[in-house]
Design a protein that fits this description.
The protein is 49% helix and 11% strand. It has 379 residues and is an alpha/beta fold. The strands form 2 sheets. A 6-stranded mixed beta sheet has the order 1-4-3-2-5-6, sandwiched between helices. It has a two-stranded antiparallel sheet with strand order 7-8. 28% of the residues are buried. The model has no long low-confidence stretch (mean pLDDT 93). Its EC number is 3.1.13.5.
């Protein structure tokens, strides 16, 4: 059984009853198709002895709830936490500590990389979840019993899986591997919009020349700022394809905008002059202030051989830790690392496993040899 909480008095009463909880399962339902920021529609909570659906559309002040989850001594358990934490940050301007993400834990244990909640539930508990409500409109009220039962399932089974995963992590000695990944989730800066940096995520950015990136940065920043201000999807203002075409076609006057496929006349009338000024602003920058994409080295025959050796290390570590090599690093990820001139794989658990040994090999501190048909790695 679970509670449906839709008023401040009921929320206060519930929080008083769970004030001493050592851990809590958390999930959210939201919609985002027509907005820049996700619209929170439901919060699901489970402690060791309680389950509740909290209605944020009916409760105006959620600050008592946020104060509760900020308690450092209480572990907050999510599955694929990033989007849930993004919502928490936008509504409360803070990120709770003591986070545990079951999706990351599953990867560390070799159960599957980027594993969805339903698949993890089936694998660990043998339960097949009903997915019929996955595309429901969570903003409509009243919510049906079927919707609420579907939603509470996202924390009910999470409560069952958390002790199982925790025990496996402790028995395998891998709990410490998660420290960097969980600390990264607690970094509030990653949930803040970044208008000046969003040009890097524009689809097609690699098609542009360095000099063209100056205009793209200004236009993409304007789009992001407008999307935030109006709370609209950025693609509703300008699609990535249109941004790239404006820059590649070297639009220099209002008439030139008419040649850009996907631009409406009213958009040109309303914003054309501003766009031109942004393009000119970017183009006026001195070369030393041009934005740059990560530099890549061409993966020649020698670097390809180095990638082969690094993959030997990946496979060795995977075998020793009983994890699929693909969960640690794929060939393309290793090649990308080399092409960008890095000697570290990542800053998460995979990096904890591979960064030091990769750096040692690339710096000539490792010797590989064969002894009795067994690979030996000496440092």
């Amino acid at each position: 059984m679970f509670e449906y909480i839709d008023n401040s008095e009921a929320l206060s009463g519930y929080l008083e009853r769970v004030d001493s909880a050592k851990w809590v399962m958390l999930d959210t339902e939201f919609i985002r198709e027509k907005t820049y920021f996700p619209k929170l529609c439901l919060i699901q909570v489970a402690t060791e002895t309680t389950q509740a659906c909290i209605d944020p559309l009916a409760i105006k002040d959620l600050s008592p709830f946020f104060d509760w989850i900020y308690r450092k001594e209480m572990v907050k358990v999510f599955h694929a936490a990033w989007q849930d934490l993004e919502i928490v940050y936008q509504l409360s301007d803070a990120i709770p500590s003591s986070i545990f993400d079951t999706q990351i834990a599953a990867a560390v244990l070799g159960l599957g990389d980027q594993m969805g909640y339903a698949r993890l539930v089936e694998q660990l508990l043998g339960v097949q979840l009903d997915k019929s409500q996955s595309r429901t409109d969570w903003s409509r009220r009243p919510l049906s019993q079927k919707q609420l039962e579907y939603a509470i399932g996202d924390v009910t089974y999470l409560r069952d899986m958390y002790p199982m995963l925790l025990q496996q992590l402790e028995e395998s000695g891998r709990l410490s591997w998660l420290q960097k990944s969980f600390s990264h989730l607690e970094d509030a800066t990653q949930y803040e919009p970044d208008p000046r940096g969003c040009w890097k995520r524009v689809k097609g950015v690699h098609l542009l020349k360095p000099a063209q990136l100056t205009a793209l940065r200004e236009l993409a920043a304007w789009r992001e700022e407008q999307a935030i201000k109006k709370d609209l999807p950025r693609r509703w203002l300008l699609s990535d394809e249109v941004l790239i075409d404006i820059v590649r076609m070297k639009v220099a006057d209002l008439e030139s905008f008419q040649q850009v496929r996907g631009l409406k006349p009213e958009q040109i009338t309303r914003n054309g002059k501003l766009w031109l000024s942004l393009i000119e602003k970017g183009q006026a920058l001195p070369r030393e202030e041009w934005p740059e994409l990560p530099k890549k080295r061409k993966l020649d025959a020698q670097l390809a051989l180095v990638a082969d050796l690094l993959m030997v290390l990946v496979n060795q570590q995977a075998r020793e830790n009983n994890i699929s090599p693909q969960m640690i690093a794929t060939r393309s990820q290793v090649e990308k690392m080399l092409s960008e001139g890095r000697d570290n794989l990542s800053d998460d658990w995979r990096g904890s496993l591979m960064n030091e040994v990769f750096a040692d090999l690339l710096n000539g501190k490792i010797v590989m040899r064969i002894e009795n048909l067994q690979l030996k790695i000496d440092t």
